[in-house]
């Protein structure tokens, strides 16, 4: 059973010279230890939802897995604070995917970002999580939220792996700043277009250019900055 994503916390609200006791809804921070084949272990701090996706995506991005098929077993302790993973080596190593040369109208990029920013009811209530969305070729949108943007990206990638979704024709949208570690995850998953409401770092831009990924930042309303591989975005549509 999934733990609660938020709790009520006593708080004193200050406005001008007035203090008023009350309660605020705050997000839950869930410590998770991941044991891999009984030898390696990782420590994560996350929101306690979609933990199977988080573990799968995180291990894929860290190169412990090259596909969901190598995930032999994944189980959790009763309190879901420890994940136990065993792996089955791939019989035939497969070549890594490459981002495909898709095209996206600018209007579609704005629409995807708008849908991402409104996808998390938990953010609307608490302001304490980030939301990441994956736009599929058929136009459908999958969204995941977490305390940290990189965890939300892991959950999206884990979902795709577990449901056999090819990421090389998808668009990733994130709600905040885009750092190098998030771009490394997008490169590992061969995602061709990454959209961000916020600013990218210099290393994120370098990685996007090196891996042939279109990177758009500062998407606000109907404007954006294109930092890498701008040819995939059609500004006239």
TrEMBL record:
<feature type="binding site">
    <location>
        <begin position="218"/>
        <end position="223"/>
    </location>
    <ligand>
        <name>Mo-bis(molybdopterin guanine dinucleotide)</name>
    </ligand>
</feature>
<dbReference type="InterPro" id="IPR016193">
    <property type="entry name" value="Cytidine_deaminase-like"/>
</dbReference>
<dbReference type="Pfam" id="PF02634">
    <property type="entry name" value="FdhD-NarQ"/>
</dbReference>
<comment type="similarity">
    <text>Belongs to the FdhD family.</text>
</comment>
<protein>
    <recommendedName>
        <fullName>Protein FdhD</fullName>
    </recommendedName>
</protein>
<comment type="function">
    <text>Required for formate dehydrogenase (FDH) activity.</text>
</comment>
<dbReference type="InterPro" id="IPR003786">
    <property type="entry name" value="FdhD"/>
</dbReference>
<keyword id="KW-0963">Cytoplasm</keyword>
<keyword id="KW-0501">Molybdenum cofactor biosynthesis</keyword>
């Amino acid at each position: 059973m999934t733990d609660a994503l938020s709790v009520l916390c006593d708080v004193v609200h200050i406005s001008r010279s007035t203090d008023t006791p009350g309660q605020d809804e705050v997000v839950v921070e869930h410590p998770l230890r991941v044991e891999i084949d009984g030898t390696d272990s990782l420590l994560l701090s996350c929101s306690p939802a979609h933990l199977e996706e988080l573990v799968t995506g995180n291990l894929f991005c860290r190169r412990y897995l090259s596909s969901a098929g190598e995930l032999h077993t994944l189980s959790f302790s009763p309190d879901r604070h420890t994940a136990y993973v065993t792996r089955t080596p791939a019989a035939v190593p497969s070549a890594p995917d490459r981002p495909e040369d898709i095209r996206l109208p600018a209007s579609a990029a704005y629409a995807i970002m708008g849908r991402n920013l409104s996808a998390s009811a938990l953010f609307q209530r608490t302001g304490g999580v980030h939301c990441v969305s994956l736009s599929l070729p058929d136009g459908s949108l999958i969204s995941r939220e977490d305390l940290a943007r990189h965890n939300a990206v892991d959950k999206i990638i884990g979902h795709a792996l577990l449901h056999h979704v090819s990421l090389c024709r998808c668009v990733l949208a994130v709600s905040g700043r885009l750092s190098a570690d998030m771009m490394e995850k997008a490169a590992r998953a061969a995602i061709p277009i990454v959209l961000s409401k916020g600013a990218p770092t210099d290393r994120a831009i370098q990685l996007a250019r090196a891996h042939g990924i279109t990177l758009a930042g500062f998407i606000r309303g109907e404007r954006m900055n294109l930092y890498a591989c701008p040819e995939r975005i059609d500004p006239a549509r």
